[in-house]
Amino acid sequence: MKYHRLTTAQFEALHREFATYLAALSIDKKSWDTIKAEQPDEVEKYLDQFSDLVWEDVLSKPLYLEHLSPNHFFIFECLESEMHLIAVKINAVEKDLTTAEGWEWFLHHIHDEKVTFYRSTKSYDHDRKEELYGMILKGAQMSEEDRYKSIADFLG
């Protein structure tokens, strides 16, 4: 397996896609129920293969990632050949950006001198998919394009 298996919640969200994947392998519901009952190793194989297909698809498209810590916020626009970073640092304030209260404080004090923004662009050091997947394994979460674009537009 190249990536990790999707979570139960992710499989539930992608149940139609998983059914289509099984159908492409000529596995209908009755066959799948039989496989689940009689061949648990095969079930694991299909779950792993489907997970890898999903990760390959996700990581091959433009992607937005973010990583929150108590006084830093990093948001990445991951394009085909390069990655754009906007980093936010909260200085000398006892606010935690990982909480709803801290995030609200940030949104209301975005112009405050205690909020510092940094921007950077870099090319990928290795394989793009490997780098992005590594970021996810280190705690980056998938984000929305609108979130990145609104901060980028604010910064001009």
| Structural domain count | 2
Number of helical segments?
7
Q: What fraction of the residues are assigned to beta strands by DSSP?
A: 15-25%
**Could you list the spans in which at least 5 consecutive residues all have pLDDT below 50?**
none
Tell me the distance between the termini.
42 Å
Major β-sheet strand ordering? 4-3-2-1-5
Task: Summarize the entry for a quick read.
The protein has 156 residues and is α+β, with helices and mostly antiparallel strands.
Detailed description of the structure:
With 156 residues, this protein is α+β, with helices and mostly antiparallel strands. The protein has helices at residues 8-13, 15-24, 29-38, 40-60, 100-108, 128-137, 145-155, and strands spanning 63-69, 72-78, 82-90, 115-123, 141-142. The chain has 2 domains: 8-60; 63-155, no CATH class. The protein has a 5-stranded antiparallel β-sheet, with helices on both faces. The chain is elongated. The mean pLDDT is 93.
Provide keyphrases for this structure.
alpha+beta, 2 domains, single chain, five-stranded antiparallel beta sheet, 5 strands, 156 residues, 7 helices
Layout: helices, strands, pairs:
Blueprint: H1 8-13, H2 15-24, H3 29-38, H4 40-60, E1 63-69, E2 72-78, E3 82-90, H5 100-108, E4 115-123, H6 128-137, E5 141-142, H7 145-155
Antiparallel strand pairs: 1-2, 1-5, 2-3, 3-4
